[in-house]
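Researcher: Here's my situation. A collaborator sent me these components and asked whether they could plausibly form a single complex. I don't have experimental data yet, so a predicted model of the whole assembly would be a useful starting point for our discussion.
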Amino acid sequence: MKKTLQKVTMRQIAAKAAVSIGTVSHVVNNSAGVREPARRRVLQAISSLGYQPSLLARGFRRNKTTFVGMIIPDILNPFFPQVVRGVEDVLYKNAYRLILCNADNDDKKEQVYLNELCGYRLAGLIVIPSVDSQLTATVGNSRFADLPMICLDRQAPGWKGDSVTVENAEGTYQATRHLLELGHRSIAIITGPLHVNNAIERLSGYERALREASIPVAPEYIQEGRFDRLSGYERALTLLRLSPCPTAIVAGNDLVALGVLAALQELALRCPADVSLIGFDDLELDAFTNPSLTSVAQPGYHMGARAANLLLDRINGTDAPAQHVVMRTLLKIRGSVGPPLTAFDAKSKHKLRR
Amino acid sequence: MKKTLQKVTMRQIAAKAAVSIGTVSHVVNNSAGVREPARRRVLQAISSLGYQPSLLARGFRRNKTTFVGMIIPDILNPFFPQVVRGVEDVLYKNAYRLILCNADNDDKKEQVYLNELCGYRLAGLIVIPSVDSQLTATVGNSRFADLPMICLDRQAPGWKGDSVTVENAEGTYQATRHLLELGHRSIAIITGPLHVNNAIERLSGYERALREASIPVAPEYIQEGRFDRLSGYERALTLLRLSPCPTAIVAGNDLVALGVLAALQELALRCPADVSLIGFDDLELDAFTNPSLTSVAQPGYHMGARAANLLLDRINGTDAPAQHVVMRTLLKIRGSVGPPLTAFDAKSKHKLRR
DNA sequence: GGGGGATTCTAAAACGTTTCAAGAAACAAG
DNA sequence: CTTGTTTCTTGAAACGTTTTAGAATCCCCC
């Protein structure tokens, strides 16, 4: 049983090593030369007393910690953990620690975390904005002035600082073109919330592909969802009950696509025979669904890593103008897409159904 | 443009409100009566100057923060985020904030996070130990003496404090019995690392079921994996090349089961016709795999919530003896299990092999 | 208008570090 | 043995808050 039940501070180390508190600090931080005998005594006292500096006191005094905060909108969406891993790996290698907060797609909660994390004088902050993010406004407060910060995956409205995103429009453009090339002419989309730039961009890529193919976009073929499975399911039911029913659906992300799959199953429609489906994100599970899910791949891990590197630059004082990194997407073709039923097939199907 | 580019502290509020610093503090914390006019002046100064207390300074002075830390072993395993949500909801309602750290199944990293989080004088800590966790030893240091802490999902070796776990053995026991009742006699298991109590318990449930059915357990039918998909895939390949090949596999968790599915596909074996499969965790995606995955459900969200409540009790000073909450599991039957091929079927299958 | 008991307010000490100016010690050279 | 220079070491201030003891004020009642 150690005799040290009290918290051990620098004072006690100093006493035991017969040295001043300042010297202890210098040993701990290598902040000034300390002659060998003294240094040894200090080190020895530290290990024998089991001293660990109070990071709270240090952070308070230095007015800066070595923690980086990250706020994500939905920890249950497997895409975000991938991004987190990218951030974490880079930061950890650079001796920063990552603390993660889940805003739960609640802008209020996001704001609370922003404010409180800021109050802890983090080294930096990486934010994937929530759906209704007030990020730009919240961070406008002068308290945030010297907190390096990166906006990741989604551009918060009005955000002027660094950001890392993907070519959302290009992704859905490729996806939609792929469907067009297979012969689809009735292609619907289930978007994310249309005040999130991601969702808007993905919609625009879809629209561009159709426009280029001279196919008018039916307004009821554009359904606004919420980037989650349930809304995917609901919107899909709406779409699939339309007449004519679309032969292909572009989903705002893979969770939405999962919901679509559930809806298809419920209506006893086959995928891809009756309806083709393309998701967005390329989650690991896409290879295992039934059918396996064609999806627009985002480089989640690399997005995180890139954002972390950008943040490190800022922390180290770069004052380069705000960077907007935009990464590529890639269509991963799997089992959920195929050619549409021929006109004949479609007609017979239609008769049967009605 | 605000004129306050400098950080605004209590001192400035005090000055502007013509009041002492102590009074400001009392207003902010409701720690003593302050007469209406003064209180109003303070509040007014606070909002006009945009003051936000330095949580770092407060935490330092109070020697306690309102953050709770949580360390999880693998943020990419979708089971853990579920648990996190449970923890978070309870804590948030009680005005505590959750900060999450991902140990990445690296005991070294876990230790770093333990030590540094402790240095920030968190209100409490919830840990899902990593595979090789040194938790008990690390936390033995006196610094951790007054840090309430809960061990969640896995019992760290030697851990004596509060814990929340599930009936792992009962889970695999039920799973194995289900397979036995369907007629399976050659049942294999892919476990987690066998120094993790979860893995050991799950193995023991499997063994008990076989023992009760008087079926000898072939040692090569017990494969030790690592709770991840890749190891599930590798171990499954090993199992499926055995002769005789098992007709059913119990997987250590659902990620492992996903790996097994991949292996089955690669070997062109049908599930459940050729091999039945049961996972553990009941991830959301289980309903969407091909075939859908039978799994032992753990109440992830509720485990988290329970742990958070236990922690809150400790934070509030309960000195009840250490609690060990053990929650139930439930077999969720889906498409990946069926009766084994009969001897005849098996023979004809070889001939027919499409 | 003068106690006296509540209530409100203040000054100052602490919390554990870092940091800086300046003193002390060591060392090299004359 | 000085002296000058460099290298160590120290004491004390500062960081922004909370907290406590006691001073100031209020209010009521005689």
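Model: Some features of this prediction you could bring to your collaborator: Chain B touches chain A through 57 residues (CB under 8 Å). Residues 19-23, 26, 32-35, 38, 57, 60-63 of chain B lie near DNA strand C (CB under 10 Å from a C1').
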